[in-house]
Each structure stands twice: as C-alpha cells, then as structure tokens.
Amino acid sequence: MGAYYDEIEIEDMSWDAVKGVYHYPCPCGDRFEISRKQLANYEDIATCPSCSLVIRVVYDPLDFEDEPPGDESESEGSAEEETDSDSNDDHFEDALDKLSLNDQPTPATVAISA
C-alpha cells in the first residue's frame, strides 16, 4: 500500500483495554485502530472503520513477538492459555531434570573411500 494519511509512532497511540486495540484520532471523527495481534504479525497499517483513511504505525516488532498466536479477540480463553503455558513450562523443567551429560567424549568414526 502506498498512500498513508500519516505515519504515527506507537507511543503516540492510546491503548483501549476494552476493545483490545491501539487507537489514534481520525480526521473524520472516528479513530484509527490496530490490535496487538496485528502488530505481532508485522502488520503496520491501522484502519479507520468509518472512512477510507489508513495510517502507518511505526513500532518495534520485537516488542510484540511474545504475543500468543490466535484470533483477534481476547476473550475468556486468555485465562486458559496462561494455565496451559504454565503446564508447558512444567514439561520443560521435567525434561531438564532427566537430562544427563556424559563427560567422556565419544570418538568420531570417519569413513575414507579410495
């Protein structure tokens, strides 16, 4: 996309926890919106739902790389996701407890063909 109304730093946008989006005032009276999921997917275009204007959001994608994958809505499932991630950490710790390293180096076998 080539024509943006403006380029706005993410720090200049406001976070709306109810809708789960960053927003910025649009000249039409509504507001440009972009979600954390969109930012995590390297999408940098915030749209206005009332008009055809778009802005480019300037941000560091690394700030949003830990955003969990999934749909746009952050509903009741978010609490379950946190519980699931805790159980995944337990599996990781169990694997580390079972890990054993051998101090004896294993000789490498090299086949030479003539």
UniProtKB/TrEMBL annotation:
Specify where the region named Disordered lies, as residue ranges.
62-114
- Reaction(s) the record says it catalyses: 2 [3Fe-4S](0)-[protein] + 2 Fe(2+)-[Dph3] + NADH = 2 [4Fe-4S](1+)-[protein] + 2 [Dph3] + NAD(+) + H(+); [3Fe-4S](1+)-[protein] + Fe(2+)-[Dph3] = [3Fe-4S](0)-[protein] + Fe(3+)-[Dph3]
Q: Which Pfam families match?
A: Zn_ribbon_CSL (PF05207)
Which pathway is it part of? Protein modification; peptidyl-diphthamide biosynthesis
Keyword Metal-binding part of the UniProt annotation: yes
- Which keywords does this chain's UniProt record carry? Iron, Metal-binding
- Taking every annotated instance into account, which residue ranges of this chain make up the domain DPH-type MB? 4-60
Q: Which InterPro entries match?
A: DPH3/4-like, DPH_MB_dom, DPH_MB_sf
Q: Locations of Acidic residues compositional bias?
A: 62-87
Query: According to the lineage, what is the superkingdom?
Result: Eukaryota
Q: Does the keyword Iron apply?
A: yes
Q: Where is the composition biased (Basic and acidic residues)?
A: 88-97
Q: Name one GO biological process term.
A: protein histidyl modification to diphthamide
GO MF terms held by the record: metal ion binding
Instruction: Cite the record's note on assembly.
Output: Component of the 2-(3-amino-3-carboxypropyl)histidine synthase complex composed of DPH1, DPH2, DPH3 and a NADH-dependent reductase, predominantly CBR1.
Family listed: Belongs to the DPH3 family.
* PANTHER family, per database record: DIPHTHAMIDE BIOSYNTHESIS PROTEIN 3, DPH3 HOMOLOG-RELATED
For this entry, the protein name equals Diphthamide biosynthesis protein 3
